[in-house]
Design goal:
3 helices, mainly alpha
Length: 60
Amino acid sequence: MPTELSAVLASASWSLAFQHKDVEIRTSMKDAQAKMPSQAQEIWASIIGELEALGRRGDR
């Protein structure tokens, strides 16, 4: 399910700060997911997944 935020994240370059803390940030994002309304959790999980995939490929 495409969203405006996921489109922005997919096309954005990773800042140096994010590159150095991407695992910590994604872990925090996963922790925050449980506090979100159920309808937002799927989109949030998709965004996390996209960030993880980009990190594995080195597309920073």
